[in-house]
Amino acid sequence: DIQMTQSPASLSASLEEIVTITCQASQDIGNYLSWYQQKPGKSPQLLIHSATSLADGVPSRFSGSRSGTQYSLKINRLQVEDTGIYYCLQHYSAPLTFGSGTKLEIK
Amino acid sequence: EVQLVESGGGLVQPGRSLKLSCAASGFTFSDYNMAWVRQAPTKGLEWVASISYGGSNTHYGDSVKGRFTISRDNAKSTLYLQMDSLRSEDTATYYCARHHNNYYFDYWGQGVMVTVSS
Closest Cα partner for B97 from B18, B30, B37? Predict the structure, then answer.
């Protein structure tokens, strides 16, 4: 099974700050990596697919990148509504595996 | 507008069975692979199972293999999850999700809670 190691587990940042969340895959998954945001009591929402492509309707301050088997989600100019838990997902092969999540709070 | 609405959750005793449903609308259901993803209380997301658009191919996570069965009725635009031999560790919110052609999840339902307890 492919393991996704996500860091940090939690993050507290100020408004307008830039934050970065990373996921390290245990093997090559190509661009089969997506990012999701989950707000309290809500279902997850797609942010980024194919490692770097912004999902429809997602603000452009969100971006994804890839360096080998390391994937990053960057949020520019952090806003209050960005509070939540962020997950990566590898969909290269079954079993599909999520990262453990990053809880983002606004200071 | 794509909508996925889960139902069938509730409280069930260990060892018993439960069947979840997910009613889909706003898209051609038979064109898409579908999946179930769960989230135990205060925990992260766990993929449970996926099914191909025609229903002929299924995949399961190791923790549910042999106990859960994913199925679909394309005529009714409905996805199912039959859960047998339930355990306390199956307690979770279960989400129905649509696979994009590249297999990521582009739409999710609101979730349905399943509690396994005596």
Answer: B37
Q: For B68-111, how does the pLDDT look when each residue is reduced to its tens digit (9 = 90+)?
A: 999 999 999 999 999 999 999 999 999 999 999 868 999 999 99
| Mutation to test the A interface, candidates B45, B51, B65, most A Cβ within 10 Å | B45
A22 and A6 Cβ atoms separated by less than 8 Å: yes
Q: Would you call A50 and B62 a contact, using CB atoms and an 8 Å cutoff?
A: no
CB B67 within 8 A of CB B85: yes
**Cis ω before A95 (30° cut-off from 0):** yes
- Up-side HSE of residue B9: CA atoms within 13 Å toward CB? 18
Give the tens place of pLDDT for each residue, B44-60: 999 999 999 999 999 99
The Cα B42–Cα A106 span in angstroms is: 20
Among A55, A95, A101, whose Cβ lies nearest the Cβ of B44? Answer: A101
Spell out which residues of chain B touch residue A89, defining contact as CB-CB under 8 Å: 45, 47, 104-105
Strand partners, B10: B114
> To the nearest whole angstrom, how far is the Cα of A76 from the nearest Cα of chain B?
23
Q: Which DSSP category does B17 fall into? A: -
